[in-house]
Amino acid sequence: MTAVDERGMTKFFEEFEPPEGVKVELLRGEIVMMASPDLVHNLIVEEVQDQIPRKRWARLQTQDIDLIDEASEPVPDLVVLEREARPDSGRLLPSQLITLVVEVVSKTSVDRDYGVKRSIYAAGKVPAYLIVDPIVAHCVLLTVPVGKGDEADYRVQQITKFGEPLSLELLGTELDTSEFGTYPGVRPHRRP
């Protein structure tokens, strides 16, 4: 049996064909597969996307991201970049073009969204990472990425409860979170 390092997983991932209806990401050399998201999740993504001005910003759902020096290809729920900065084509969007990534926490993604993805996006120098959490009814906006690799993180963290306005200064807009739904009957966690 041959050992496969993280870079080997990146090559394997390029050719991997997931089953239909399954979202697949490569996170630090680990292939993560997820079932289709809950309706609450999808409605929140739509609500966030609709509030970001389309004239200036490209708002892309399920776009694979390319991160320099990372064996990762995350697929955030929403990627926001300046309309003029977007490439004409390609499967992978370079992280240095991105202004904001958005992840809506699912019942099974709490640790990934608050943990490894936080570090991955910070390592990719994505200026802002917004975690929308329908389990505990709050948003966590992370800004000012610092560090490299596993040690990367965001220096600034702002928590906003659902129902309160959330300022997205980098985009020149404010999110109305009052329409964000929650998952019924899901046990709360203690993150961020």
TrEMBL record:
One of its GO terms (molecular function) is endonuclease activity. Pfam families: Uma2. InterPro entries: Nuclease_put_TT1808, Restrct_endonuc-II-like, Uma2. Keywords: Endonuclease, Hydrolase, Nuclease. Residues 13-175 form the Putative restriction endonuclease domain. The keyword Nuclease applies. This is Uma2 family endonuclease. The lineage of its organism: Bacteria, Bacillati, Actinomycetota, Actinomycetes, Kitasatosporales.
